[in-house]
Amino acid sequence: MLPNTGLIRSAQSGLRRQCLNTTIQHRGLAAAASGSFSYETGDASGVKFASRDIPGATTTLAVVARAGTRFQPYPGYSEALHKYAFKGTTRRSALRINREAELLGGQLFAYHTRENLVIGAKFLRDDLPYFTELLAEVVSQTRYTRHELEEEIVPAVQEERKKLLKDVHGMAVNSAHAIAFHRGLGEPLHQTSSVAVNKYINNEWIHDWASTAYAKSNYALVANGAQASEFSKWTKEFFSDAQIQTRQNAPSIDSTQSKYHGGEERIAHDGGNALVLAFPGSSSFTGGSWKPEIAVLASLLGGESSVKWAPGFSLLSKATEAFPGAHITTQSATYSDAGLLHVSVTGKATDVRSAGTEVVKAIKAVADGQISQEDFKKAVATARFRALETGQSTEAGILQTGAGLVHGGKAHQIDELGTSIGKVTESQLKTVAKTLLEGKATVSSVGDLNILPFAEEIGVQV
Amino acid sequence: MSYPTMAGFIMKRPWLKNWMIPVAKWYKQAAGYRQLGLRADDLIPEENETVLLALKRLPPKEAYDRIFRLRRAFQCSLAQTLLPKEQWTTPEEDRLYLSPIIKEIEAEKKEREDLDVMVPKKPATS
C-alpha cells in the first residue's frame, strides 16, 4: 500500500546495516572504542576527513567548507548556500530528506561563520552510512532550484536581516569587523540591507558558487563519535565520486591575506547601546600567526562572571563594578590568517560610556605591568580551560578541526593548544598589551550617539 | 491541475500513435485557440492552488509573455476577430511551459501525502 518504495528501501538498508553491526550495537555507553580526544585524519580521493571516537551512542558528522562570508564572491552568497543545504537533490526532495532523517532520529543542521560553511547531522551511531551518503548527496547533487530560493531561502535571508538590524551588539561586532578588515573578513555575517537579495542572489549564480565551495579540495569531512575505520570506509564509498559538476562561471576563492586597518564607526540605533572596542588579535591555532598571549589577555580582561550573583573577578568586571547597567564581554575571534580581540560593552548608554573608559584604563594597566601574579595565573588557567573546553565540545571541535584541515591541511589538536597557552609569560602579555595600545584601534558604537563616546574620548587611537 | 489525457496510452502503441497524430494535429488547429495567439497551456484553469503556485514559479519572462497572450486573446474576443494569420501560434511555439511545473507540484503533494500516511515498520532488532 506504500508507493514510496525509495524511502522504505533506504530505511531498510539502513536497518540491515544496523543488524550487521551488532558489535557496535551491543557496546555499552561507557565502553570507549578508543576514547582519544585527538582526531585521526585521512584522505578519500581528494576529500580530507578527520574523526575521533569519543564514547557515546551518537555521532556528529559535518562537512566544513571554506566558503564563509569571507570568501563569498557577492554579498549573501554564503548565507544562501547554507540555506540550500538539505533542499531538493537530483535523487530526492527536501521533504523526503527531512522525513528520512526524522525517521532515523537524526537532526540536520547548517550554518556559516565568517570563514566556514558547515552542514552536518547528529544521529545514532549505527546510522553513519546513511548520513554519510546524505551529506555526499547534498554536497554534490543539490539542484539549486529557483522556486526553493524564492519560496524558502529569500524569506529566510530577509528574516535574518531583520534579526540583525534589531541586535545592536551583532551590528557593532559586524561593524567592527568591517572597519578592521574592510573586505574579506569584514563582510557582514548576515545582510544589513536587501541589496543582496534584489541584486545578487539568484539560483544559477548560487549554483556557480556552490561548485566552487563544494569542490573536493575546498571542504573537509569531520566526524565526532565514529570509529575511524568505519568512518573512513563509508567516506571512501560515498565521497569518492561525490564531485559537484564544475560550472563555467564558477567564481574563484579569493584568499588574499587579511590586513588590519582599524578606525571608527558610529551608527545611530533606537534599540539599545553597544560599544565594541577591538584590536588586531591572533589567528587560529592552525593558522599562521597564532599568539597565545592574546587568548590570555582576553581572559584576563574578561568581564563576564563565571560564578552566579557576583560581578566576577576579571580585570574588567572589577573595574566596572560601579556601572551595573553595562554588560562586558571580551572575545578573541580567531580566523585562519588574522584575528580580532574585541571587548563589547552593552547596556545603558551612560554606563556604556563610563565602562568604555574603564576598559581602556584596564588595558593600559596591563601594558604598564600593574597586574598581580595571581590575576595572571588565573587568566592563564581560564584561557587554557576555555580553549580546551571549546575543543572538547562537539560542535566547536568539529568546526575548528574542519577549518584546520581545509585551511592548512592540519587538524586542530587541542592538547598542543593547551600547552602553548600554558607557556605564556607575564612579560609577553605586557608587550602585547602595549603594542595593541600603540597601534590603531577599532571602535564601533551603535545606539544613542549623543551619549556614546568617540574613540578619542575613551583614550584610544584610531 | 493537469487535464485528463490519453496521450500515455496512445504513445505506447505505435500503430495507434501513427493513426492518431494527424487527427490530433487537425484537432488542435480546429480548437481555435491558436488563432487567438494562445498556447495549449494557457487554457489550463488557474482557479486552484496547484496552478496558482505553478504560475508563481514561472520564470519572469514566461509569466510576462503569458499575460500578454491572454490579454491579446481577450481583446480579440471582445472585438469578435481573429489575429492576422502571421500572428497565429505555430505548432512549434505551442509547447508545454506550465504543465511540467504543475506535474512537479502534484508529485510534491503526493509525496507529502504518502509520507504522512506511511507507517514505518522496523524489523525486530537482534
Automatic annotation (TrEMBL), chain A:
Keyword set includes Zinc: no
Keyword Membrane belongs to the record: yes
Cited InterPro entries: Metalloenz_LuxS/M16, MPP/UQCRC_Complex, Pept_M16_N, Peptidase_M16_C
GO molecular function: metal ion binding
Domain Peptidase M16 C-terminal: 202-381
Subcellular location: Mitochondrion inner membrane
Pfam families: Peptidase_M16 (PF00675), Peptidase_M16_C (PF05193)
One cellular-component annotation, GO: mitochondrial inner membrane
Membrane topology term: Peripheral membrane protein
Chief location: mitochondrion
Domain Peptidase M16 N-terminal: 50-192
Listed name of the protein: Cytochrome b-c1 complex subunit 2, mitochondrial
Lineage: Eukaryota, Fungi, Dikarya, Ascomycota, Pezizomycotina
From TrEMBL, chain B:
Gene3D superfamilies recorded: Cytochrome b-c1 complex subunit 7 (1.10.1090.10)
Chief localization: mitochondrion
Keywords, sorted A to Z: Electron transport, Membrane, Mitochondrion, Mitochondrion inner membrane, Respiratory chain, Transport
Topology in the lipid bilayer: Peripheral membrane protein
One record GO biological process: mitochondrial electron transport, ubiquinol to cytochrome c
Matching InterPro entries: QCR7, QCR7_sf
Compartments in which it is found: Mitochondrion inner membrane
GO cellular component labels: mitochondrial inner membrane; respiratory chain complex III
Keyword Nucleotide-binding assigned: no
Role noted for this protein: Component of the ubiquinol-cytochrome c oxidoreductase, a multisubunit transmembrane complex that is part of the mitochondrial electron transport chain which drives oxidative phosphorylation.
PANTHER family listed in its UniProt record: CYTOCHROME B-C1 COMPLEX SUBUNIT 7, UBIQUINOL-CYTOCHROME C REDUCTASE COMPLEX 14 KD PROTEIN
Family as reported in the entry's similarity comment: Belongs to the UQCRB/QCR7 family.
UniProt name for this protein: Cytochrome b-c1 complex subunit 7
Species this protein is from: Gomphillus americanus
